[in-house]
User: What shape does this take?
Amino acid sequence: MENASERTSVGAAPPPAHPRPEGQDRYAISEVAAFTGLTAHTLRWYERIGLMPHVDRSHTGQRRFTNRDLDWLGFVGKLRLTGMPVADMVRYAELLREGEHTFEARQELLEATRRDVRTRIAELQDTLAVLDFKIEFYAGARRVPERPSA
Amino acid sequence: MENASERTSVGAAPPPAHPRPEGQDRYAISEVAAFTGLTAHTLRWYERIGLMPHVDRSHTGQRRFTNRDLDWLGFVGKLRLTGMPVADMVRYAELLREGEHTFEARQELLEATRRDVRTRIAELQDTLAVLDFKIEFYAGARRVPERPSA
DNA sequence: TAGAACCTTCGAGTGCACTCGAAGCAAGCG
DNA sequence: CGCTTGCTTCGAGTGCACTCGAAGGTTCTA
Assistant: This one.
């Protein structure tokens, strides 16, 4: 259950993500800020709004992030790139916290997200085609400049 | 120069875009709003901030958008999808207004944009891979449920 | 000729995702 | 022991891209 290839905690964890330096499992908030590029402020804010599936604390109350948390933050970072609203990510985090009986809901949510991402990719490829077209036009215009005198 | 396959005005115009209904060339603001999904407010705002390369007016001062303007708005819509800040689009619009000697600058701007778009696509594809992985995990977990009793 | 659509200018409001600072205190480390 | 880091709560500020409304007027269309 510890080294199983699937740790369900973060809903399964693919490749790492951010530069994961040390080989341990209890990071201070400043370290996490450094690895992720987020500020401590933002990390606390994520927790406040329910975007972090329970962060551990030291016996004196200081946050101790685990590698799992870093995985999660990596995933959140990816979702952010897709333009997914934070509220939706919070929803997914809630499902995780609620346990196994939310598997189906989680899967559906991920599938919906995947559809969105595919749509966004298609849109961007469309845009890319337009850009290619215009760039090609400019390139052509410059190959045949305005009647070189003589 | 009129039916040339390249009308340089919008920096070359690829396929149309939004539902282009009528066959004419002078649209009222309400029509443009309907075609593009933007509000009249937003269209006037675009003009104010310099995002429209000069919109025609009727002899009484009402805006008369042309097909070219619609093409431009279509292009702007695409750029918006890429997350390009409005200020950058304004920059491109400025270059257009400044005439032929900005060809090179325009081309460079478009090329930089294209690089961005490609990067975004790569990021999204990365995200897609993560989503695929997780969805696959959930699908697997559901195929092998938690020890069916009996 | 009435009502709808347009114009201008001005300025305030919205939603999102942070982002920051301050106050007042507890803990870690060198 | 002192300095850095961390904790909490609170609340204000930022940047972007709209978005809306109102006032006061002109123009268009049926």
